[in-house]
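Notes on consecutive records. When two proteins share a document, each keeps its own sequence and its own token line. Never mix them. Below: protein one.
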Amino acid sequence: MKPDIVILGAGPAGLGAAFQLARHGQATVTVLERNAVVGGNAGSFELAGLRVDYGSHRLHPACDVEVMRDIRALLGDELLDRSRHGRIRLRSRWIHFPLKPVDLALRLPPSFATGVLADSLRKLLPRASTDSKAETFASILEAGLGRTICHDFYFPYARKIWGLEPEQMSATQARRRVSAGSLGKMARKILSALPGFKPPGSGRFFYPRHGFGQISEAYAQAARDSGATIHFQAEVNSIETGSNGSLTIAYHQDGEPRSASADAVWSTIPITTLARYLKPAPPAAMLTAANSLDYRAMILIYLVVDQDQFTEYDAHYFPEAHLPITRLSEPKNYSASREPAGKTILCAELPCSPTGQEWKMSDEELGELVCDSLANAGIPIRARLLQVVTRRLPQAYPIYPQGYEQHFDLLDDWLNRQPGLLTFGRQGLFAHDNTHHALFMAYAAANCLDATQGFDYNRWHEYRQIFKTHVVED
């Protein structure tokens, strides 16, 4: 008899698992999603006649082969193969991103180039031992990239994104979040832009014609077609373990109390939230661990502008401290769309604290903040501003201060020992991962389930070791 599995969350991880389980007949699947649509932070919505995402999202060529094959099958010609074309503001100059040798040679500030060269020469000299000091985000990156790149780009950018000093951040942040963590790796990335050095997929990304959320929407429809059920606006209240090991999920839908029984609960919601839902309640030490893990919030500020195109670039990056926003994307440039004519949308990303002053600002004030930032960056909006809309994400990025691992490991280990409970995905594993990583986790979870033998936790442990090697693609 097939097990009943309830999946919490209809983002890429939850939907990927639902699709895999349902299409292979491994389980009877029910997905509970608190919002009215699928996708979570990887979703899309319509604004002023244009589909926009929750920030800048791309599907990277590093995607697992099986996952990529399914996405191509689900989207067909709707999945576009696009060339990356962004830029970074560095010492008041714009440098192409991904980095290009010619652009670096012609536009790199001389003082920055001299600093990088000096850092490279210093790396050839013997270094004093630092074994007695705990590694941090700052020490890992400065040892690998040198002082100039760190202090001009990575460190100010990190302060803005995570709200911490680089020295306060865990070394795990550097290993999981920075793909070019050494001058050698960075050089290889730059050389990959040259003919003859370019690996397959270098400098490119995949993007659905109607917004990044089209990936989640396609998975949701395929899961339904395979027999899965998705309940929207389902707010979970508790997950209770019965004396016979069965699980009962209490939730509200459309204001009405409801419940579902399951043999297993697969959760992709924040691991901190999951712990608070459990009945009987976790030991006090586990709740303390959950309360010790925190997230960085994000305000997405959408400006509807009365012009066909703002710039030719898909994304702008702003590491400079005096500019509060971190990134600006233009959705029409991701999908190469020219519709609607005479109108484009800019999406600015503003990391912040949900208790900070930015969170309390009105849409109008936030729109002015973005306009001022762009003017100060030398790319002012000259066309008429038609509308400002915001979206607020209270749990955009997990924060990795030094020592966070002891809290996460304690909670994660305890949850892993709860019968019938599985947590995975970006939020479920408190991970800085891309969508293709989340989908790989979903497929891995499904691969561990056998309808007759049950869930293979030894195999899952092996997959968990693979997840730890994931590095975010920017």
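Protein two starts on the next line and is unrelated to protein one.
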Amino acid sequence: VDDAFINPFAGGDREAIDALELQLKESIGLQMIADVPLGAFLSGGIDSSTVVALMQAQSSRPVKTFTIGFQEEGYNEAEYSRAVAKHLRTEHTELYVTPDEARSVIPQLPTLYDEPFSDSSQIPTFLVSQMARQHVTVALSGDGGDELFGGYNRYFLMRKIWRYVSRLPPEMRHAIVSAIDAIPPRAWNLVYGGIAKVLPRNLRSVQLGDKVHKLAEILECADPEAIYYGLISHWKQPADVVMGAREPKTIMTHSRDSEGIPDIEQFMMYLDAISYLPDDVLVKVDRAAMGVGLETRVPFLDYRVVELAWRLPLSMKIRNGQGKWILRQVLNRYVPKALTDRPKMGFGVPIDSWLRGPLREWAEALLEEGRLRREGFFHPQPIRQKWMEHLSGQRNWQYHLWDILMFQAWLEKEQAH
């Protein structure tokens, strides 16, 4: 990171786009060397589409690409990946997964990850790996693109949010928070649902109510670093839920000054690159894939790509309120902008509705108050409160609850041995 600021990229936009295209092409070309069948995950987003486009540009035969789809609205990217695959003329395989098939993965998770691991996108990641393994032994992925090129929404929203928040006097912030909290997320969703269909696509939002309540939490923050820490945290006060807990000092609690990074956006990208990427994203993909005997490769994390990305100015990553500007320019040389230019989607499953429906009995057994008390790891009260609020539809606490459920499922497996 220090070297990047000492030796920044000196060229203009065109030179930077050319340099990134060349470096990515070289990295991907090296990662395509294999004496076994090879393919790639394709979600239809910027990162995976760029990897596949540059693979196909160097391949004499159609690249094998894989995606899974869901019937649930808001969770299905298959139509986008199909359009990209058709344009690039890849050998595309897609599988529409039923909720029962997806849920059947859950009992395998404690064994697959061998630790309490609670990123619920582990489920579709396992399913797409399982499908890909039927055709190939190695798959390239687009992981790392968000952290290197400013892809997460929080990167380009942060400055705008803080500009408004910092102008408000504390009393006004508190009044706005109280007003937001007085209206449950379900009510926000109902009102929004009535007008969403007439809004432009880029203004449509899934689960607006919870996002509005997340905004209320942001209004309470004292500085941009506190906003970032709040955005990436589920349980805001771990000691309130974990018995005898005291959160240790980590790299996540360092100040921006101590790391010598001038921009809050680059500071967030740096922290994500040394924490969220290796401890969540790469663990998730590697263990899901190796669980079915599939090797995954990550061309964005070639050290030369990483070095170039960090030497680029922030304006080449985040521009006009949109992330991954330079990566989009590379991709636009291979795929029409209309096929990939859309709001970012997560790679997830509808855990929120499953917990209220088919997973309710399983979750209730793991979250039972007496059980939590006997096991001695968690304070039952805050967990039970969130569970009740979730079941009633008052709030969507899927991520908070999934954290606890994955620990409980892992613990149950350990106790059975």
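For the record: The radius of gyration is 22 Å.
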